[in-house]
Inverse folding.
């Protein structure tokens, strides 16, 4: 009995298919009295009516089997809906992320434009912006019916999203390297000692000229503090 | 929370307060003889100045500073002899007599010429063919030989610029090569990061270090010694000099001289000082706007709940009223983190070199 009740959440259905009206609204429509019925009572009435009809036509075993099949079917549809919703949420999340990245790049573009921006960057951002609009339109118009398989439209949107994400990631990585937050592995420093190897010793008077020196405040405190911090971090 | 009002030498760090023999933290010439030094050196390779730092055995710091500039003059026996008598360093390169450092700047002003600069915009100048040999001589002069082969040396490198494409790899590789050939084991450290090492010990090396140099401004946001954000702006003292020179119709070295003779940005007097103040305001506003934008747009930034101190260093920050203008421009922006003190480093010109030295001492 509990299982059957869980098949249809009458309260939920009522909430979704009804609206709330204030007493003032009702009064303004000339209603002074309303009939009140509880959701539980409606559920009990529906259940009783369904079972009565089924009981007249089917044996108790058949009714039980029918309820079981209905329950399975309902769960199957529910699972599908949930998967579909999760997929939509993922795509929406990805879209929002790309939109946020786009805002960052747009700001960067505007800033660079203000200070002799290279035309190539402006062009790149312009292209990305156009692609964003196309993707947004695809997403807005591409809502497919429940349970339907992904069609060529979805593939197209996914391809565009992938391409856009790659282009933006590349650009963000370049910006990241500039601000020191890049995830990429830094390349090995170039060894340029040979430039100096080819230089002969130059004639100079440096050995005969006094180097001006100053004395400055010590760094012992800073060094000790850094070592202490390192020990603490190491102990954690 | 807005920036705190702090004095020019306020906000002493553990580093500053611990072993400063001069009390106020200000640098002063040594009285003659050299004392024994401890292994490990720091080197600030700046567009305008080269600064070396090493530790004396008594805990004090020895600073050697030279202007990163040169001037070629007629090479003859008389000139060589005269320069040596005057204590002016020179090298002979391809038949030319090249005067190095501060005297080159002074001579250029006297004769109305422009100094030649081995570096431009924070990096080795691509247009200066004599840059490599001149820088080698200048660095040899301020660092001297290593204590022993392979002595650890930390040298400053700029972060990548956000407003121009510059080749940090070549710059870094060039100096690694040079310092290796001199017998050191070189390690590069970000310029802004080294300011954090020097100035923010009392904040557990958490805060923002800014180095206002000649060629660029370097910014580093660090959290417990780790740099979370580092970038540079390809504008600095030279940018101010160029613009001031352009509007006043004078040589750049004249603009530099005007700037360094003692201007107060909060009270500019006359057309020349007004021009300097305008460009300072502009430069500081530009940097702060970029810092705000970087902070808001970068991923992986630490969440800073406690007020963050900002320390300004570098030769360009030495001008009178710099911190006041900095605070004024800061007040115009809303930062995504609480701002604590906004102070000038105790020794703005030495901060980067001393930060490199701290890194060398702890083997960062």
């Amino acid at each position: 009995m509990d299982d059957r009740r869980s098949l249809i959440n009458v309260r939920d259905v009522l909430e979704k298919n009804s609206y709330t009206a204030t007493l003032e609204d009702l009064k303004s429509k000339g209603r002074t009295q309303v009939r009140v019925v509880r959701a539980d009572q409606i559920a009990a009435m529906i259940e009783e009516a369904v079972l009565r009809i089924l009981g007249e036509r089917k044996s108790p075993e058949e009714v039980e089997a029918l309820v079981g099949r209905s329950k399975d079917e309902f769960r199957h549809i529910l699972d599908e809906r949930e998967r579909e919703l999760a997929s939509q949420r993922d795509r929406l999340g990805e879209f929002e992320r790309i939109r946020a990245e786009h805002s960052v790049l747009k700001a960067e573009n505007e800033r660079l434009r203000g200070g002799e921006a290279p035309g190539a960057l402006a062009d790149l951002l312009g292209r990305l912006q156009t692609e964003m609009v196309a993707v947004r339109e695809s997403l807005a118009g591409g809502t497919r019916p429940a349970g339907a398989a992904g069609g060529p439209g979805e593939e197209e949107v996914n391809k565009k999203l992938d391409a856009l994400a790659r282009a933006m990631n590349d650009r963000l990585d370049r910006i990241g390297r500039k601000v020191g937050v890049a995830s990429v592995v830094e390349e090995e420093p170039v060894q340029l000692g040979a430039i100096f190897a080819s230089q002969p010793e130059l004639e100079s008077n440096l050995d005969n000229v006094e180097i001006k020196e100053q004395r400055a405040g010590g760094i012992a405190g800073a060094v000790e503090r850094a070592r202490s911090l390192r020990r603490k971090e190491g102990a954690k | 929370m807005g920036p705190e009002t702090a004095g020019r030498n306020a906000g002493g760090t553990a580093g500053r307060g611990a072993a400063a023999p001069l009390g106020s933290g200000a640098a002063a010439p040594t009285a003659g003889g050299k004392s024994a030094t401890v292994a490990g050196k720091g080197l600030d390779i700046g567009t305008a100045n080269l600064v070396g730092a090493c530790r004396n055995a008594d805990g004090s710091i020895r600073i050697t500073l030279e202007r990163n500039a040169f001037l070629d003059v007629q090479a003859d026996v008389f000139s060589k002899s005269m320069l040596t008598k005057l204590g002016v360093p020179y090298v002979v390169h391809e038949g030319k007599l090249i005067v190095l450092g501060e005297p080159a700047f002074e001579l250029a002003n006297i004769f109305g010429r422009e100094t030649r600069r081995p570096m431009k915009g924070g990096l080795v100048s691509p247009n200066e063919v004599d840059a490599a040999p001149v820088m080698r001589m200048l660095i040899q002069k301020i660092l001297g030989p290593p204590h022993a082969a392979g002595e650890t040396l930390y040298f400053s490198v700029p972060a990548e610029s956000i407003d121009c494409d510059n080749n940090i790899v070549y710059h870094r590789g060039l100096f690694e090569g040079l310092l290796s050939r001199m017998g050191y084991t070189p390690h590069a450290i970000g310029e802004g990061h080294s300011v954090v090492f020097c100035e923010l010990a009392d904040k557990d090396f958490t805060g923002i270090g800014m180095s206002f140099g000649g060629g660029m401004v370097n910014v580093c946001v660090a959290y417990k010694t780790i740099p979370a954000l580092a970038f540079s702006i390809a504008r600095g003292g030279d940018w101010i000099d160029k613009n001031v020179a352009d509007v006043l119709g004078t040589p750049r070295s004249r603009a530099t001289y005007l700037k360094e003779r003692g201007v107060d940005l909060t009270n500019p007097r006359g057309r020349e000082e007004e021009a300097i103040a305008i460009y300072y305001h502009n430069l500081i506003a530009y940097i702060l706007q970029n810092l705000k934008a970087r902070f808001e747009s970068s991923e992986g930034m630490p969440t800073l709940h406690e007020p963050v101190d900002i320390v300004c260093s570098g030769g360009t920050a030495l001008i009178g009223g710099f911190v006041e203008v900095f605070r004024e421009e800061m007040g115009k922006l809303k930062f995504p983190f609480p701002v604590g003190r906004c102070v000038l480093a105790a020794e703005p010109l030495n901060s980067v070199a001393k930060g490199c030295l701290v890194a060398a001492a702890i083997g960062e």
Remarks:
- Chain A touches chain B through 52 residues (CB under 8 Å).
- The beta strands of chain A are 203-204, 213-216.
